[in-house]
Design a protein that fits this description.
about 55% helix; 9 strands; globular; 6-stranded antiparallel beta sheet; 3-stranded antiparallel beta sheet; single chain
Length: about 550
């Protein structure tokens, strides 16, 4: 029976240890791992050998085996600060990778273990904050970001990104006044930091009517961009914000001197082409799109989608189809590309549109059962409506979203520490799973081929539309499947007939700005307690309505989950 006590490396083994570390630091991972494996075999009671093996395995992408090696090192040297720190750093790197892959629950678990082993990692606290914010656990996210901010301040390190994230989380938490004050302070201290300006502009856009009446939401951003002509990141961010705010004419004027300074810059050509297209100056935009397409941008799905939009506007449907087909090849999960391809097929009379969209089979409308603890659906909906009303703090629709004449809740709705929201999330998940179970399998279909038994929510929010409000036709780029759950509806929507269709949800009619004279493929009258479900690439929007009451919904995007 072997002893569990640590035995130091001998002189020769220590030399091999240092050699492997050097190889690891110089990027020669395979060679370092080979030495570490040999060393662990030669010195199985040496914690340093197992710690080295853990580092090398992690660097070679074998995290589970790395964890086992670190655990062996800790068993030999329980509580050792160096082993704990290296193990914690290794886990934190893995947690960051999981976060970037969208594996949010797994990332949280790994990051929490990393911080339990090595709590001084400010970057891991930031990653945990990002994960928790995505999961909708706003208070926990704020605490994680605050922890990172305190560490960075103590070290005299740059905490800009963390402070900007904190302002965003405060807005998510329904504390826009605090968020706005923090954003103003950050911009005042760091006028060259583009993300801080973006946060401030967005906060003023949605909440300025109440918190800063009369203030131009883009004023501070505009002044900074004009004062810093050599700050390229700031210039591009301001141009993007102008376009998101539908200020295409100002964007075009702003971009002109940038292009003069950098002639032939494909990215700037693209930005200018988008602005010209928005102003219906399509003939001037066309050569800029064509020139940009000849370079690296021609293999970027985001650019191909922009050029496809231009092609639809100019009635060059063959070009639109070419761009969409190429984009779906480059990124088979790109929802906007599939929406464009379906539209191009429709315009060409190609039956593949019906295969892709199948508006009768792939659009579901299901009744949601009241969650446990609620006597009936009406009681649940009334309770949920009262909860949601407290979350609609903004006075203006979000920038660059489909909402017209209404408000949208900040941050993620699901995951909040609220019993009613949790009950709604569980009830809606059950309804989604029942819908999924009834869908057919089709390995060749971009939607059906990805179907699983359940889903992960990757976005959730509530929208409250006022009279004359609507959703412009749009798709959901971050989802696989999307939804609309009807919480409360005006009487005029419930009573509207098949001719007026006031407040109904429609499918298959493209984005209005594309200028295509295509009617909806299917229109559904909403009912309180019912959930509409559909592929995220499917065009959808709402018909405006006229009523004193608001139209209150919950919406969420989903990705497949085993």
């Amino acid at each position: 029976m072997s002893s569990s006590r640590n035995q130091p490396l001998n002189a020769a083994q220590a030399g091999r240890f240092r050699q492997a570390l050097g190889l690891l630091q110089s990027g020669q991972r395979a060679q370092a791992l080979s030495i570490a494996e040999t060393l662990a075999g030669q010195a199985p009671q040496a914690a340093d050998a197992w710690q080295l093996l853990g580092l090398c395995l992690a660097d070679n992408g074998r995290q589970a085996q790395a964890n086992a090696a670190f655990e062996r090192a800790l068993a030999l040297l329980p509580g050792n600060a160096m082993v704990s720190r290296n193990y914690g750093v290794s886990l934190a790197r893995h947690g960051k990778a999981l976060r970037r892959q969208g594996q949010w629950e797994a990332a949280e678990s790994v990051l929490r273990k990393a911080l339990a082993l090595s709590p001084e990692q400010a970057s891991a606290w930031v990653d945990l904050g990002v994960v928790l914010r995505f999961l909708g656990r706003i208070d926990e996210a704020l605490a994680a970001f605050r922890r990172a901010e305190g560490m960075l301040d103590q070290r005299g390190a740059n905490a800009l990104e963390v402070q900007n994230a904190i302002n965003g989380v405060l807005a998510d938490a329904g504390r826009p006044a605090e968020a706005l004050a923090g954003a103003r302070q950050l911009v005042a201290l760091h006028p060259n930091h583009a993300p801080a300006h973006e946060t401030l502009s967005n906060l003023l856009w949605e909440n300025g009517a109440e918190l800063a009446p009369g203030e131009d939401p883009l004023g501070e951003f505009r002044a900074a961009a004009l004062a810093q002509p050599d700050n390229r990141a700031l210039q591009l961010a301001f141009a993007r914000t102008l376009m998101a705010a539908r200020h295409a004419e100002e964007a075009l004027a702003f971009l002109h001197p940038l292009r003069q300074r950098e002639p032939g810059n494909a990215l700037l050509d693209w930005f200018v082409a988008d602005a010209l297209d928005a102003l219906q100056q399509h003939e001037q935009a066309a050569p800029l799109y064509a020139a940009a397409a000849r370079g690296e941008l021609g293999n970027l799905p985001e650019f191909l989608n922009a050029r496809a939009r231009h092609a639809f506007r100019t009635r060059d449907f063959a070009l639109a189809a070419d761009c969409a087909e190429k984009a779906t090849r480059l990124d088979p999960r790109n929802q906007e590309s599939w929406s464009h391809l379906g539209t191009a097929w429709r315009l060409a009379g190609d039956e593949r549109e019906h295969w892709l969209c199948d508006y009768e089979r792939l659009v579901g409308c299901v009744e949601v059962a009241p969650p446990p603890g609620f006597g009936d659906l009406t009681t649940f909906l009334q309770t949920l409506a009262a909860t949601l009303d407290t979350m609609h703090n903004a006075k203006h629709e979000p920038m660059n979203q489909s909402v017209r004449g209404g408000t949208q809740t900040a941050g993620l709705l699901f995951g909040r520490d609220d019993a009613v929201i949790r009950a709604a999330e569980d009830a809606l998940r059950t309804a989604v799973e029942n819908w999924l179970a009834a869908l057919p399998n089709d390995a060749s279909h971009p939607f059906l081929s990805r179907k699983q038994r359940s889903v992960g929510f990757v976005g959730s929010w509530s929208v409250r539309l006022r009279s004359s409000g609507r959703h412009s036709n749009h798709i959901h780029s971050e989802g696989w499947a999307s939804s609309a759950f009807y919480v409360s509806l005006p009487g005029s929507v419930l009573e509207s007939g098949s001719e007026s269709r006031d407040g109904w949800i429609q499918f298959g009619q493209p984005l209005e700005e594309l200028g295509l004279d295509l009617s909806p493929r299917r229109v559904i009258q909403p009912k309180p307690g019912y959930l509409a479900l559909f592929p995220s690439y499917m065009w959808h929007g709402t018909v405006p309505f006229d009523a004193r009451e608001s139209r209150l919904t919950v919406a969420f995007d989903m990705q497949p989950k085993m």
